Every structure is written in C-alpha cells, then in structure tokens.
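Below is how a single chain appears once it has passed through the pipeline. First comes the sequence as given, then the structure the pipeline wrote out for it. We keep one example in the README because the format questions we get most often are answered faster by looking than by reading.
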Amino acid sequence: MFTGIIEDLGTVLEATDINGGRTMTFSCKFANELSVDDSVCVNGVCQTVVALDESSFTTQLVEETLRKTNFAAVKAGDKVNLERSLTFDQRLDGHVVQGHVDTVGVVEDVVEEETGWLYRISFPEEYADYIVGRGSITLNGISLTVAREEKAAFTVAIVPYTYEFTNMHELQIGTRVNLEFDILGKYVLRYLKNREG
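Resulting structure:
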C-alpha cells in the first residue's frame, strides 16, 4: 500500500526484454534502504525488488503488467516517480494507493498558468463512473485531485512543487500515463452494481 506522495524522481538505467516480460533497473536515492522482496511503487505500479545495489534497484515485469500499464514503452533515460510502501507509523498524506493500475490515459492538453499547470487526461469511457470531481486519482503514482471531470477525460491542477519533483514536467501531449482510481470508490460501485444485479 502507498500514499501517492512521491519520494524520489528516479531514472530508468536499463530496460531489457525477456521472454515476453521485462527486467528494469532504476536509479534511486533510497536504494540503500531497500531489501530484495520489498515493494516499490514505480510510476504508479507496485513492483517487487529482485536485485539492488547502493544506488539502484531492479524489478521484473510480467506480460500482464506490460498489457495494463505504460511500461512497454518506458525506456532507458526516462524519469519515473518512486515511493516506498507505507508503514503503520506514517501519516497518510495522499490517499490509499495500491499500485494496481486500472488503465492507461493519454495527456490531451497542458496549459501553463501563472501559478501552476493544468493537465487534461483522456481515458477509456468505460471507467467514467470512477471519476468524481474533487475526488482522488493516482497518475503515474502521484496522488492528485480531480479538478474537472468530463465523460472520458479529467483535468488535474499541478502545483510547482509537484511539477518540479515528479515526472509531470516530462509529460507532453500524447504521453501515456498510468491511472489508478480511488479504491473506496471502486468498492462502492461494485457493491451498487451487485445490488442492482
């Protein structure tokens, strides 16, 4: 479990295709505090550390992860948002994030304002019920608030700190991003659909 509060902006050091999956190595300022088998949220995807050294860690991605996330297109040199798993003595500053990506969205527009940036993200219309204005959403592992909602798109407002210390400043029109909808909302919708059925 994670909070969506990014701890480090890492870099993909290596991305190697293996038997339909991938092995990826990421630079990370807290790598020396990790152990093999720890969970790290990388761009919103919960991944297991399989190897590490003082400044980097390695994960393995299976076919299902590559199908459901944007990691098939991630390459060496790309910036990634990193967060260690939540411990019980931490404050929950963001929202409950599982690191289980629901779908991939696409950046449709980026507007720079005087005090921040607005990002409009489109997503498959079948997920429209999961978006709530002023509700929580995870974009590439970042806990954000939905500023505006549409049928198959939403807008988030990005403050300068988030813009600088996450990979938001790397996103351009057409960039694919990992989306995880609020887990509480997903359970409520599932319950209501089951009752209707």
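The chain has a mean pLDDT of 95.

See the next section for the split statistics.
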